[in-house]
Amino acid sequence: MRKIVLHTKAAEKSGVVIENGEIHEYVIDRPGAEKLTGSIFLGKVERVDQGLDAAFIDIGQERSGFLRKEMVPWCEGKLSTALNIGQRVIVQAIKEPVGNKGAPLTANVNLPGLYTVYQPFAQGKLSISRKLEVEKKAELESWLEKEFESSEGCIIRTAAGDVAPDTVREELRGLRDEWKTMEQKGINQPCSLWSEPSIPDAFIRKFPATTIQEVLIDDANTSRRLKEKFPSLGKRIRWESDVEGKLPVSFSRLQEQIIQPLVEMNNGVSLVIEETEAMTVIDVNSHKVKGRSFSNSQALDVNMLAAKEIQKQIRLRNLSGIILIDFISMKNENKEKQLVSEMRKLVKEDPTKTNVFGMTRLGLLELTRKRESASLPSLLTNPKEVNFTDETAVYRLERELLQRREAEALIIAVHPAFMDCKKRLLSEPISSKIPQELFVRQDADISGYQIELEGSLDMIREAVQRRGYHVDNLF
């Protein structure tokens, strides 16, 4: 069972999932950071590409969306027979735009609920979870065949097995009414017809209703609205003025933990998590464990504990794409298989689709996780700047000064660490080769060094006196 905590009063809305007393998931929704995924648009066909068998759809956004033939339920032949240039078509974004490419679209629109998904263009396709009891499944099938038209369809989720059939029917009718209201808006220009706030609505729907123990929210009006929208969760949705006080750590402390690449575990093992453009790499580090040398059985025990923490961190940080994990080496194929099996078991707890492929020839465990949004570290931090080391900066300055022979004197600002590094690296014989008179001041606000002024010796001395600099001789 899980507890969902929602902080919606601030401009940045936050959602947290607590499982077994620990935070396993954290999402944020910021003003202006609009997400297209799941939104429904009235689109206009701009172009049908015969080679790609796909269409470019104007959806009222900066970039046109991309609609493949297989995403059009009523298309049986060439896409050009189903869509014409200038035609209005209702579509739904299935992923966010990437780079210069527009959002991938589908014409098989989905309106999701807790137990069902209504599909107005599914052409009579009814998908019911195999996990439902035979009697309940038959009852729902019979009702759906009578209730729905041949163009409609729906998905009945596994969670529907835990509620009465009337609850399922009530939700489907509500979604259907919502769709009809959307159709009757009478809009002709490309625009958004429907979107759902990622917090709290979509965040609550992400989890099976039967696994939600409690939903705490800090806004009374939003609490009432959610009770109306999700009546089966009504008794579990509760207004709480200070939701942050119900968390194991504050939101600020949680963010500080998430951006740290180093995760220390209680058994002396640590994880180092590094995101790159191509993939995320996680290293299991055991250097703090006494003895350092493990038998295969000991290594497996440590790796099993690390795997649990790794899965938690992947969810918490919302890491996605290719993920490589460098566990402690075991050099035993059976032990590696046990570890892979444990990892596959752990990822089943993640609502986001994750595939564990196994060990590579280099002994790295590889997995992929579906990308639904940017990782939290990338949202919370600035891109890392690449700077030269102090040693490199000292030698670069020396080389630059040897080439600048036209000036008699220079004013140079340097970081204090740069000054210390120079004294350690360069000897007097090297310093004597510098042709200029140098006036050096220390400034902790700059990185490395900065040549501020160059000219005649008299001009530089006058500038130093006028600016009130305290200067040293660097070389």
From TrEMBL:
CDD domains linked to this entry: S1_RNase_E
Keyword Metal-binding part of the UniProt annotation: yes
Residue span(s) of domain S1 motif: 38-108
Cofactors: Mg(2+)
Gene Ontology molecular function terms on file: hydrolase activity; metal ion binding; RNA binding; RNA nuclease activity
Transmembrane segments: none
One Pfam family cited in the UniProt record for this chain: RNase_E_G
PANTHER family: RIBONUCLEASE (PTHR30001), RIBONUCLEASE G (PTHR30001:SF0)
Protein name in UniProt: Ribonuclease G
Highest classification ranks of the organism: Bacteria, Bacillati, Bacillota, Bacilli, Bacillales
